[in-house]
Amino acid sequence: MKKLTYFIHDGKGNYEPFYEYTIPQVGLDEFYARQLCTYFIVKGSQYELISNEMDGDEEILVLEDRGRNHSVLDEKNYRGLGIHVEFRRYQERENYKLLTAVPCSTHLDVIRYLLKDVTEIPGFGQMAVTSTEIDEDRGVYVVYVKNLDEPNME
Fold first, then answer.
1. What Gene Ontology molecular function terms does this protein carry (predicted)?
2. Which of 56, 65, 71, 134 has its CA 20 to 30 A from that of 77?
3. What DSSP assignment string belongs to 91-154?
């Protein structure tokens, strides 16, 4: 594994290379963490992961453009502050409310959160994971959660 490439699928069978990382740029643990994220936020746009593939030494993530990423008031930029995971929940009156942010020593620590269907959030207990993202613009991983007894939102 030497290269991680994001491709955009246009819905018409075309795939355009979009973003690329190599092992010298990021570590192997970050390669894996990125592959576990449902969404990729970059340059103010939101992309959804639709396929995770391999081709020889290349890791390929195929994305679909979901349009403009909408910010919320309590967003913080973590660039230069180390690796962090934010935990946010969606409630109708509280749009993606920040519950807490957890600093992580390595991307392996992040992977532990990204792999879970149910995660333990400091100060809030166990919650169900609904989706995950890497927000390239803010330099943070985000885990979206709901209460264990809440129905799925459609």
1. helicase activity
2. 65
3. ETTEEEEEEEEEEESSHHHHHHHHT-SEEEETTTEEEEEEEEEEETTTTEEEEEEE-TTSPPP-
At residue 125 the predicted structure's pLDDT band, cuts being 50, 70 and 90, is: very high
Residue 136, judged by CB atoms within 10 A of its CB (0-12, 13-18, 19+), counts as middle
* Token pair recorded at residue 150: 């809440």
Residue 40 contacts residue 63 (beta carbons within 8 Å): yes
Cα–Cα distances in Å, from 106 out to 59, 85, 102, 109? 20, 11, 12, 5
pLDDT digits (tens, 9 = 90+) for 69-78: 988 888 999 9
Direct distance between the N- and C-terminal alpha carbons of the chain, in angstroms, rounded to an integer: 37
